[in-house]
Amino acid sequence: KNGIVRIIGDPEKRYQEDPIRILRAFRVCAKLNMSLNSSSRNPIKKIVPLLHEIPHSRLFDEVIKFFLTGHGLNSYKIMRNENIYSQFFLSPDAESKEIDLFISNGLKNTDLRINQNKSCNPSFLFSFLLWHQVHQLWDQYKIELKHSIAGLNQAIDDVIEKQIKLFPIHKRFTITMKEIWRLQSRFENQSPKKIYRLLLHPRFRAAYDFMLLRCQSNELDHSIGIWWTNFIDADHHEKSLMVKELTRK
Fold this sequence. Notes:
Helix content: 55-70%
CATH architecture of the domain at 1-88: Orthogonal Bundle
Number of strands: 2
Strand order of the largest sheet: 1-2
Largest sheet: 2 strands, parallel
CATH topology of the domain at 1-88: cca-adding enzyme, domain 2
CATH class of the domain at 1-88: Mainly Alpha
Strand content: under 5%
Oligomer: single chain
Order of helices and strands: EHHEHHHHHHHHHHHHH
CATH superfamily of the domain at 1-88: cca-adding enzyme, domain 2
Radius of gyration: 21 Å
């Protein structure tokens, strides 16, 4: 009523009975673009730590529903505003418009896909939610290690380790996340000898979509995304000419 969601009964008691109700209440708010009334919100800060006493598989499924049910962007905003997001995902040390734009664009794209009845792999979701952590460490490590690929690999390992300590992500997802991240440097460094090999990689499409998200968010030069899109759409002869053109540069 009046854009306000209320918990039936005594909110604190209801949350204590099942802390998952906190997540469900916020998910309803995100779906209906409403807000929780003050009496339903007030006990949440005290009850939130109890979420981590919930069996992980159940909690994981509930967190996924925040982002993969067609209203992920609204859910993200609510989770950030209510200090719930940092309970589950590594967060930037300070507010960043660039990071917020990147994640928001990723969630807009995800919402669009879901509302078009298309699938979305949780691996891709997690890869863009945590990319800011990887990217920051990559910049640091490639200087320290004097090697871009070694720096990226070290950054990936560190971020996955930290995330697992905070809120574990299933290994079947982290494997794909690592592949998506590791392929990013190969889009940027267009080595003529490795272009076709990259095109045949099982995770090429996911990594390509991720690279386009980076371009969309002004993290990566748009010309890189345009080149790869043209290359994908080109026939065999045109692909060959594009690769030859790279060798001349």
